[in-house]
Amino acid sequence: MRTLRPGDSGDDVRMMQHLLNTALRPSPGLRMTGYYGDRTRAAVARYQERHGLAVTGVADRHTLLLLGMRSRAAPIPVGATSSAWADAWAGVRRTVADVVEHVVDAFDGDDAPPAAPATPAPAVPARPSASPAAAGAATPRLPGGRTPIDPTRLRIDREREMPWMRLARMELGVTELRRAGQHNPRIVEYHQATHGRFQDDETPWCASFVNWVLQQANVRGTRSAGAISFADWGVATEAPPIGAIVVLRRRGSGRGDRATGSGTGNHVAFLADLSDTHITLLGGNQSGGTQVSQVPYRLASYWILGVRLPG
Fold it and tell me: For residue 77, how far is the Cα from the chain centroid?
């Protein structure tokens, strides 16, 4: 992890600007341009003063770790090409027409001009229908009388994206601390968006992450640390946009799930993509419970309990 100084630029500066916007109250309103200018330096100095650090305006390793940054701000997903990574960042920069006003305000004004909006991705034809049996979607009896959703009924709308996804993407790379007795303050901050308000990064935090992201976008979540709480949140949709909230359950009688870090087998995250065989989610407590990442889950191994949008 490099020390960041005025005049530096890059994705790690962009991540730091986002973390400063959400960690400081009132928010400094930095625009996430990836350039370390005077306003970014002032925000770093303010953060250092608030936390009893040497006030230098230079983001050293101690300052960055306290903010919740790790070795790199936003890792390229496994298997992604350089052009795919460029497209991903272009998506982050894209102006969302219906974004909540205060979220737009939070990204106004720093030292460099904003990036140009990306060209929307072309529409993708709907997936062909398949029988529930072919999709591995036999109707089981689940706790609470819930019936899993047939994934062949879902038609992802890739031309629409929920405004909170730009915030969720900015959290890519947040990880649990592996040293005993240490906890990532960023994950602890996620927990503060729930009634549990846990003080560690070991308590399953997928629902805490979703609640925190929604809170930053001025959208009321469930305030529960339980993933299943989102199965009845808002309204159901069969034409979900990118960023719709998805609740999964590992097939089996209440067993845990190593891929999501869940002891109940339930998991909640944001929809990133959907195919005939896999659903790709951007969420917390994924991939062994150590990072916010985009992870494809085999539909033959999971039931979909809910695909939801705000009511």
Answer: 13
